[in-house]
Amino acid sequence: MKKLITAISAIGAAFTATAHADISVSGSSNVAYISAAGTGDTEYLAVGNTVDFAMSATTGNGIGISSSLSLSTDYDNNNSDTATGGRSVTFTTGGATIVVGDVEFSDTIGSVGGVVNGPLDDASLLNTSVAAGFNDDDGMGVELTTAMGSASLNISYVSNDDFDNYGIVNSSGAGDDAGMSASITMPFGAYSATIGVADSDTGESSSGASVSGSFGGGTATIGYSNQTLLASHGDLTTAGDSEIVGATYVMSMDADTTISLGYQHAKDSDSESATQTDLSVERALGGGATVYLDIRNLTGDTAANLDGTAIAFGTSVAF
């Protein structure tokens, strides 16, 4: 036994002496009761856990290199165990961050209004018929975020939206489309503004902007997004423009309690429109635990019997 302990200690010491990377583990848990809207007004119990592994290292000349991987059991799908991440590597240097691999470009810049937590957002059963977002905004590419004085610039480029971390660059294959987005966030006085554009080889394009600032003891954000979409979009029969106008307001009632309000109105080229309103109340319990009450209401043009009001209350814990 002593020889075994000595051998294990030696291996551990050798690893510690030669390792140049930092590896950290964190996680989260969600438990929620959901009264979903739509057909039957179904009630759900949702439980999920996520474990996140993060790896990072710094070269001799100061370049940071990192990646991550997550293992999760989804709270909105029974016995669904998945591994995500691990398809990109991030480099940081001189105030710039570069992500290579699986990236997502921003095709809905300026679209704001959602404030509820993940369980209700994913499992409310509310579903609008109004089209929003490109057919595909994710794939193999490069993303750059860098400071420009007091402003921040983001440029994301997907070279092939049919692959994530291994595929042909600039492929001519059917469905292997490229896309990009560019946005800049800048302060002006007591406010901060973000403006951006996006474009895809499919023929889809978008532009939008949002402004946020302090108001009445809280933080208000308003936004506008315009998206030119194809008739092949699942919610469209007529190609054309979708417009989204939204706002959020977040206010701290005390050191531990936060109230968030959200509003979003959207319409598309099928002349359909829908309005979504959100309310979320959260209270921190300490130790990374939070309890919350979420309410979401959806009216207007929706998928069959999928309008109404959904409610969730639960707890989330960050480890």
Please give a structural write-up.
The chain has 319 residues and is mainly β. The chain is built from two helices and 17 strands. Strands 1-2-3-5-6-7-8-9-10-11-12-13-14-15-16-17 form a 16-stranded antiparallel β-barrel. The protein is globular. It starts with a helix and ends with a strand.
Say how many strands there are: 17
Regions with pLDDT < 50 over 5+ consecutive residues? 1-19
Q: What general outline do the C-alpha atoms trace?
A: globular
Structural class: mainly beta
Q: What is the share of helical residues?
A: under 10%
List the SSEs and their pairings:
Blueprint: H1 2-18, E1 21-35, E2 43-58, E3 64-73, E4 81-85, E5 88-93, E6 96-104, H2 118-123, E7 138-148, E8 151-160, E9 179-188, E10 191-200, E11 205-215, E12 218-229, E13 240-252, E14 257-267, E15 273-286, E16 289-300, E17 308-318
Antiparallel strand pairs: 1-2, 1-17, 2-3, 3-4, 3-5, 5-6, 6-7, 7-8, 8-9, 9-10, 10-11, 11-12, 12-13, 13-14, 14-15, 15-16, 16-17
